[in-house]
Write a structure and sequence with these properties.
Keywords: Heme, Iron, Metal-binding, Monooxygenase, Oxidoreductase. The protein has about 500 residues and is of the alpha+beta class. The chain has one domain: Orthogonal Bundle (Cytochrome p450), CATH 1.10.630.10. The chain is built from 17 helices and 10 strands. Strands 1-2-6-3 form a 4-stranded mixed sheet, with helices on both faces. Bound molecules: protoporphyrin IX containing FE.
């Protein structure tokens, strides 16, 4: 303890002040409860079928539950194959403390393969390109500072609503036609919703239609390529970065596949960005600032930022939005009385969307596409009496916590009213710690596409409910985690036209 104490004193001045009060009680990181580890392989043996103490788990919710029940409110998982160790904190006070003190330049690791590919394999092609999801430190801060005013502008809704309504109308028509083929819809509803989410985010990012609704969208169509690449990147990143893989030492089959997907996704998005740029130049005259598309505004700030952000919107804005939309439609289908309440709100003389917004919040509480938030410590912390070193991935298991009765009354039930009732009502959402439900993340590094996503979803759901009654005729929907959450097929939705 003496050596540890001395090291701490000299290494980190800021943790000294907190250590003074913990001095005799601060326990080392190695004593945090958690799964035992093998050299190099870490705790991987615990996840083996039959013999593993935890076994394979279909989703992060299940894993978080097992570990919480086994070890309590602070759990350590050593990294596999030299990956950083992870620390799951179940007490919101604890991750609140770490997340807040990691601002204003928080580190969020992820997409190691993409970083490796850009920094080592294609260094010259990506010189000066710093995407938000993958960059860190000042590179991240500089990009974020440049794009924040463009993407978080309140006028966004006014500017893009007409275009998104046009796309939503086409989608409603498409669902009406496709619903006749129940088999197709059961297997492909997610694909159809993904076409809508890509078409929508592209019209915002590029000011152009991609043509995702073309019949039998061929595999060679650039929009189809973007959809397939986004899926491959998520699935392969999961296999390479969260399961045992030798990709850091040899180019495995999956590593070669992901490199191909990175190349194709980048080249395709750059093709669309260049097309948008061409159209802007051909227009030959300037338009008022508020009428400019996002890509036009970004291009006028900095070309590399425009390429990075345009590319990222066409990657991060597809499956996130389709998962969230399917999650909301599922609850509306399961709760016809809630659906009817939204319909009343939509058809009222002064539609406020207040209830619809509450439904989206409630659905995100129960079905978050990102089941847990993550920050990598950039310095030492003392949490719950333990010393947490620099370089540890601190996980907040938000989806799991959001479904516990100790945080929300009747936590597993879909009750949109909890977001609307007065403070005096026991259901009032404000009684819960504000860090429990964070579907769009936290602080300065939270999701930059939040407004865009909410706007797209609200517009589509409004159009759908105006035209159709939605039901679900099958067993409960299942979630699988592969880096992000996704829904397992089949989809048992039924859409019935309201005449
Ligand atoms: C309902 C849909 C969406 C959900 C639930 C969602 C959720 C998230 C979450 C949880 C994060 C991590 C935040 C953190 O670490 O604190 C994130 C980051 C991000 N999201 Fe989203 N997202 C959605 C839609 C979108 C869309 C439509 C776009 C693009 C237009 C987008 C672009 C991004 C980007 C670029 C980041 C990285 C931000 C940064 O590191 O500065 N997201 N999102």
């Amino acid at each position: 303890m003496g050596v540890l104490f001395r090291n701490l004193m000299f290494k980190n001045h800021r943790s000294w002040s907190s250590l003074r009060c913990y001095s005799s009680e601060v326990k080392p990181f190695t004593s945090v409860p958690g799964l035992s580890s093998l050299p190099i392989l870490g705790p991987i043996h615990h996840f083996l079928p039959v013999i593993g103490s935890v076994g394979p788990r279909p989703n992060f919710y299940d894993l978080a539950k097992v570990l919480h029940e086994k070890f309590g409110s602070i759990v350590k998982l050593d990294g596999i194959f030299s990956r950083s160790s992870m620390l799951i904190l179940y007490d919101p006070k604890d991750f609140d403390q770490v997340y807040r003190s990691e601002e204003p330049i928080p580190s969020r690791p992820g997409f190691d393969t993409l970083n490796y590919y850009r920094k080592n394999l294609e260094k010259s092609k990506y010189e000066g390109i710093h995407s938000l999801t993958t960059s860190e430190g000042v590179h991240w801060r500089d990009t974020r500072t440049k794009v924040n005013p463009v993407l978080l502008k309140p006028k966004l809704v006014k500017l893009y609503s007409p275009l998104l309504e046009e796309i939503a109308d086409e989608m409603v028509q498409r669902i009406k036609n496709l619903d006749k083929d129940a088999r197709y819809m059961q297997e492909n509803f997610d694909f159809e919703i993904t076409k809508w989410s890509l078409e929508s985010v592209a019209v915002i990012a590029l000011g152009a239609r991609l043509g995702c609704f073309q019949n039998d969208l061929p595999e060679s169509h650039p929009a189809r390529i973007l959809i397939e690449c986004a899926k491959d990147i998520i699935n392969l990143s999961w296999k390479l970065e969260f399961r045992p893989s030798m990709w850091k030492y040899i180019a495995t089959k999956n590593f070669k596949k992901i490199i191909k997907a990175f190349d194709l996704q980048w080249d395709t998005s750059v093709y669309f960005i260049r097309e948008a740029e061409k159209k802007i130049k051909e227009r030959g005259h300037d338009v008022p600032e508020e009428d400019k598309s996002i890509i036009e505004k970004l291009l006028s700030i900095d070309e590399k930022v425009a390429l990075a952000m345009g590319n990222e919107m066409l990657l991060a804005g597809i499956d996130t939005v389709s998962f969230t939309t399917i999650g909301l439609l599922y609850y509306l289908a399961k709760y016809p009385e809630v659906q009817e309440k939204i319909r009343k709100e939509i058809n009222s003389s002064e539609p406020s969307k207040r209830y619809l917004k509450a439904c989206l919040k409630e659905s995100l509480r129960l079905h978050a596409v990102v089941p847990a938030n993550l920050r990598r410590t950039t310095r030492e912390h003392v949490v719950a009496g333990y010393l947490i070193p620099k370089g540890i991935d601190v996980i907040a298991p938000n989806e799991y916590l959001s479904k516990l009765d100790e945080h929300y009354p009747r936590a597993k039930e879909f009750i949109p009213e909890r977001w609307l009732v007065e403070k005096s009502d026991p259901l009032y959402y404000g009684n819960c710690h504000p860090m429990i439900t964070l579907p769009f993340g936290f602080g300065v590094r939270s999701c930059i596409g939040r407004r865009i996503a909410e706007m797209e979803i609200e517009i589509l759901v409004t159009k759908l409910l105006k035209n159709m009654k939605i039901s679900w005729n099958g067993p409960p929907i299942q979630v699988v985690t592969r880096l992000m959450n996704s829904f397992r097929k089949p989809f048992y939705f039924k859409f019935e036209s309201i005449s």
